[in-house]
Amino acid sequence: MAVDNFDLSPEVTIIGAGPCGCAFAADLASRGKSVMLYGHPDHRGAIPMIEKNGGWLKASGEISGTFQVQTTSDFDVAARHSAFLVSTVPSYGQETILQALSPCDLQHHTLIVNVGNFFYLASRQKINPKNVLETDISPYATRITGDTVFVKGVKKSLAIWAEPPTSETEASYYNQADVDFLHQEVESIFSQRLVWCKNLLEVGLNNINPVVHCPAALMNAGWIEATRGDFFFYAQGMSPAVSRVTEKIDGERLAIARAYGLDLVSITDYMNQNYRHDQEFSDYHDFARGSVIHNKTKSAPTSMNHRYLLEDILFAMVPWYELGLKAGLSSPTIHSLIELASVVSGFDYLTHGRSLRAAGFEELSMEQILLALGGPADNAAAAVLAPLSDSRINGRVNGVDSHVALPKTQVVA
Fold first, then answer.
1. Which stretches make up the Opine dehydrogenase domain (predicted)?
2. Which residues pair with 150 in a beta bridge?
3. 173, 197, 221: which is the final residue of a domain?
4. Of 134, 176, 219, 232, which residue is most buried, by most CB within 10 angstroms?
5. What distance in Å separates the CA atoms of residue 222 and residue 149, rounded to the nearest whole number?
6. Pair (306, 346) in one structural domain
7. Of the residues 138, 164, 197, the one at which a domain ends
8. Total number of domains in the chain
9. Quick one: how far is CA 52 from the chain centroid?
10. pLDDT of residue 165
């Protein structure tokens, strides 16, 4: 953990006053930071609760105490508080935040999006922060109960992306010492160890939330609607059959990652590595029924109109599926879940999800997409940039000119 450098960023603004935002605010305040918690005027979250408590935020569990935080629903006030803005807004609320940010001059601000879910694809032409960073997952397993944020667990590490996806000419403008200092500043904000990734795909495919949430939510639809979530989502909802589907989804996620030259860990290994368990779990079902942290509360969705589908399918599974198609992978179980969620919700997730088309990447090859999002990882260049047997014809890659200019990016770090 990089807590020794906390004075590098003594003020932090948190965007989003939901459970994650409150847990993050409590964590920062517990380490001596000056915290401003911003809630959108139409989605103020826990701000009324904190104001009712005289500006004090109560926390229990892994982070325990009562902490003073500042609150606002005026973004100008929030932006003046700190050059570091950490968004904890669910992905389905990111468009609202983009609308709030777009009129603002953020050229001196660093925006950290937690969880990113390919936020960059949606933001690249809408806002102008000095730096945009994305993490793979929330640092906390947390809920708000009454007037207290209950932090069930704290992750050990997070994957984060902030490398400049630039050409060699553009890269010459950036000083490595400045990049290193930015990394130190950001590390002082998090109490978790940060794993810096070279490209966005590594972070976006490392988000295990869709693997955990989506199969269990869809396969327990009857129980969710009958009980309004009155059951233990992990220990009871993730039965052997549900866990097998979960591991199948995870296998397809890992296959997509390998196609782009990325070596990610399985869902069970991830859980063993990132939570403080008393034992090593042998498979996903063993974890789901045995994890004390994840069974402290029931945690089941109360309806099918829940972020476990609205966020995890729209903003993670849809881009995973499209990235897989670029690599020649059909990902049938992922595709089936997307289609099933569309039927259950009466909403076309593939049409409205965070697509490559919306980012202007629809016509790019997988190689070009990888380069546009940071370039191949050090161990991936040979695997990804090797000639494809049938798709390179007369200087073209998958029907796109191999020398086509990559879309201009705004991410610098």
1. 196-344
2. 60, 143
3. 197
4. 134
5. 29
6. yes
7. 197
8. 2
9. 31
10. 40
What pLDDT digit, counting tens, does each position of 231-247 carry? 999 999 999 999 999 99
The rounded distance, in Å, linking the Cα atoms of 54 and 354 is 39
Q: 118-152, pLDDT tens digit by residue?
A: 998 888 778 989 899 999 999 999 999 999 999 99
107-115-102 Cα angle (round to 5): 30
To the nearest whole number, what is the mean pLDDT of the chain? 85
Cα separation of 299 and 220, whole Å?
Answer: 13
Cβ atoms of 46 and 17 closer than 8 Å? yes
pTM (2 decimals)? 0.81
Nearest to 138 by CA among 120, 157, 110: 157
67-102 exposure pattern, b = at least 16 Cβ within 10 A, e = fewer = bebbbbbebeebbebbbbbbbbbbbebbeebbebbe
Give the domain range for residue 230: 209-352
Interval 205-220 mean pLDDT: 96
The per-residue pLDDT for 9 is 84
Residues 193 and 251 in one domain: no
Q: Once rounded to an integer, what is the mean pLDDT over residues 15-34?
A: 97
pLDDT level of residue 174 (50, 70, 90 thresholds): low
**Angstrom distance (rounded) from CA 334 to CA 108:** 40
In a domain, 317, yes or no: yes
Under 8 Å CB-to-CB from 82, ≥6 apart: which residues? 9, 11, 12, 13, 34, 36
Pairing of strands 65-68, 34-38: unpaired
- Residue 102 CA to residue 125 CA, distance in Å, equals 10
| pLDDT higher than 80, residue 116 | yes
Quick one: 256 and 162 in the same domain? Answer: no
Give residue 412's pLDDT band: very low, low, confident or very high (50, 70, 90): very low
